[in-house]
Amino acid sequence: MSKSREQIDDKLAEWIGQQRIFFVATAPLGGDGHVNCSPKGGDSFRAIDPHTVAYQDLTGSGAETIAHLRENGRIVIMFCAFEGPPAIVRLHGRGEVLTPGHPDFAALIAQFPKNFGTRAVIRVKVSRVSDSCGYAVPFFDHRGRRDSLDKWAQEKGTAKLEEYRRAKNAKSIDGLPSLGQD
């Protein structure tokens, strides 16, 4: 039922682009650390080439993914078909955090809609592409995109967002450094 692919081909990139939600999972190296899985949505994901993907990382309540990537780079991104034929796709690879000071940040962020809450772009070099049946994944109806995070970030403004990131996004729940280390 499942198979591995050599790369992200045009057909798969198109399918990925149609998905309205994806999940990002990372973990620290330490066996007692917390595994993290975060849902992402909106127009925030791009297949850059057959072995590279990127997503727009928005300010949130934590920064686990960033901390784990900075520690060890391991990441998996999962897409599920909630409409149409059943399917699950996983992209395994090594991720890196590109904050506004990174030389590649401007070129990558230009591929996404402007979002006041953007704190980074996560770029992943994909080493394994796999798909599986998704037969047990239920159907869900998409009613629309939430704008709560966008409104929250705009209401905070630049200075208060930076203050929030320093207070809430500087370390992971396991104490690993995340933002503010650039």
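That was protein one. Protein two is written in the same sequence-then-structure order:
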Amino acid sequence: MTTVNLPEIEFPAGLCHFVATPIGNLADVSLRALAVLAAADVVYCEDTRHTRRLLNRYDLKCHLMSYHDHNKLKAVPQIVDRLRAGEKVVVVSDAGMPCISDPGFTLARRLLEEELPWTVIPGPSSTLAALVLSGFSPDRFLFWGIFPVRKASGPLF
């Protein structure tokens, strides 16, 4: 167990946070991610046993609920109801960014339809954070890279 001093954060009632979790090494989690997890009323995760390992590592006490492909049709309305009731909701994947290869996209689309706010606590990839915030389908997307600052002298490809 590792105890850390967490930064102060704002976590308004009724806001959903999609929080990136480490892929592999539990020490790769950000302090902001830990602070958001600590402030949550409920954390929805693919596998509560897997997420519990991360929380135990940092001595965080969180109420965990399952949210995965097999229960997404039941869980999404529950999450929406919790947000409408003013709860602070966090969604995590077992590893990486929610909505990428997990059912988070179903929730993101529903939040968009219901005009409920959500945000992302990114991991190491700003591209994935932008994809999740966009509400676009993560099934197929392409990150071509950063365009040059000045005009290229030849073709880009």
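Residues 72-84 form the longest helix (13 residues). Keep this in mind for the problem set.
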